[in-house]
Write a structure and sequence with these properties.
It is built from 20 helices and 8 strands. By secondary structure, it is of the alpha/beta class. It has 3 domains: 83 residues, Four Helix Bundle (Hemerythrin (Met), subunit A) (Up-down Bundle), CATH 1.20.120; 196 residues, Rossmann fold, CATH 3.40.50.300; 126 residues, 434 Repressor (Amino-terminal Domain).
Length: 441
């Protein structure tokens, strides 16, 4: 997420490290590099220029040049200004109303239908009964796609056979929700390849008819400056309440996330962080600013862990680790939990300092496949006591998992090393742990 931007910011602040004394000149050089980083991320020139001006004024006002740690203070000021640029704080999401109505708008291909499902799953987790309403009457298979999405999150989808009147369908969908005890409605609308008058008239008419509590503009994070221009056009007609930024886990330069709030005046409320239906998160400007500056995002990491970790199981596991009884069955369980938390490389990059360490390391979502296959090819007894694995058993496991004998031996050695590290940590020692199956390719 924003790897290029992180690298450029890191390079910018390196300018200060090579000087024995911090001066207005080398602070200026650093901020010049920061401006280049913003422009490279597809932030428009005026926004980048104003940002640098504010940082410089704050820096000189706080006497950065005479501070004990001037470099750190300048980074802190930059982090504060990045947070302001992206919206100051996480925005509220209004689910009041009986039912509460959420209207999704945006161009074709931005991911509206997929994010209708993600949003439905998120709202359902808050104890609400959600109805999806299909109002895309133009795109082939749009209704079927929404049905598939609805089924995947166990949410009903309202459709009509006569697909000619999106305004009427939206209104009747809400009536259906009221009659059948739904507490939230998400209306999925049609998009176009580009902004046109017909689409804007239609989405405006739908909005006036159903009067949604939330109107979310869904936009692809990889479209950069174009995303901001499209957001302006939609906001002029809809006055939307917030933005859903999709594909943030892809090769996004960051321009949309950095510019939308300052240029349109509407907050980013949610970000899509993967393909799975639970890969939707509340957008926190302060956390994103910290990630951009290579500070990690421990809070989000902990929040993701809390969603998948059972407290009782965690205590049992802690006890096993303390008694040095952590086995391959336990490790397999941990892999399942990590996979539920999202993209592995994204998770590791949330640990402070890991962003730089992961540069050039290719870790994809299949990183654990071989490890899982090897462990699953073992008997329960072998998983609980790997020392029973002799040569013939290892050959059987390799054959059963479709791997080589050396892969089995490598996993067992890495697992034993990990157990030693855990033992050292229990005794107050220090060590470095690498998850088996993950590494440089």
């Amino acid at each position: 997420m924003f790897e290029n931007l992180q690298e450029r910011f890191e390079r910018a602040f390196k300018v200060l490290k090579g000087h024995g004394q911090i001066t207005e000149v080398n602070v200026g050089d650093t901020l010049k590099e920061v401006r280049k980083a913003l422009l490279d991320a597809d932030v428009d020139y005026k926004t980048a220029k104003d940002f640098i001006k504010r940082v410089k004024e704050k820096a000189l006002g706080k006497h950065v040049l005479t501070a004990l740690k001037p470099g750190q203070l300048l980074v802190k000021i930059t982090q504060e200004e990045l947070t302001e640029l992206m919206g100051k704080a996480a925005a509220d999401f209004d689910l009041k109303g009986n039912p509460s109505v959420v209207l999704l708008a945006g161009l074709q291909g931005a991911g509206k239908t997929t994010h209708a499902g993600k949003l439905a799953k998120l709202i359902t987790s808050k104890g609400k009964k959600v109805l999806l309403v299909a109002c895309d009457v133009y795109r082939p298979a749009a209704i079927e796609q929404l049905k598939v999405v609805g089924e995947s999150v166990d949410v009903e989808v309202y459709t009509e056979d006569d697909m000619k009147d999106p305004v009427g369908i939206a209104s009747r969908g809400i009536d259906h929700a009221k009659k059948n005890g739904f507490t939230s409605v998400i209306v999925d609308t049609a998009g176009r390849l580009a902004v046109d008058e017909e689409m804007m008239d239609e989405i405006e008419a739908v909005s006036k008819s159903i009067k949604p509590q939330e109107t979310l503009f869904v936009v692809d994070a990889m479209t950069g400056a174009d995303a901001v221009n499209t957001a302006k056009a939609f906001n002029d007609r809809l006055d939307f309440t917030g933005v859903v930024l999709t594909k943030l886990d892809g090769d996004a330069r960051g321009g949309a996330a950095l510019s939308i709030y300052s240029k349109v005046g509407k907050p980013i409320k949610f970000v899509g962080t993967g393909e799975k239906m639970d890969a939707l998160e509340t957008f926190h400007p302060n956390r994103m600013a910290e990630r951009i500056l290579g500070m990690g995002d421990v809070v989000t990491l902990v929040e993701r862990a809390q969603k998948v970790v059972d407290e009782k199981e965690a205590k049992l596991l802690e006890e096993k680790i303390r008694k040095n009884k952590f086995d391959l069955e336990d490790f397999l369980g941990q892999i399942q939990q990590i996979k539920k938390m999202g993209n592995v490389k994204d998770l590791l990059s949330m640990v402070p300092g890991m962003g730089k360490a992961l540069k050039g390391v290719d870790i994809d979502d299949d990183a654990f496949v071989q490890v899982e296959a090897i462990i699953r090819s073992m008997t329960p007894k072998e998983r609980s006591n790997p020392k029973t694995l002799d040569s013939s058993r290892k050959k059987r496991i390799a054959k059963g998992s479709g791997t080589q004998l050396e892969d089995v031996n490598k996993l067992l050695k890495q697992f034993e090393d990990m157990r030693k590290v855990m033992s050292m940590m229990n005794k107050g020692g220090r060590g470095r742990m690498q998850l088996p199956g993950l590494g440089r390719r």
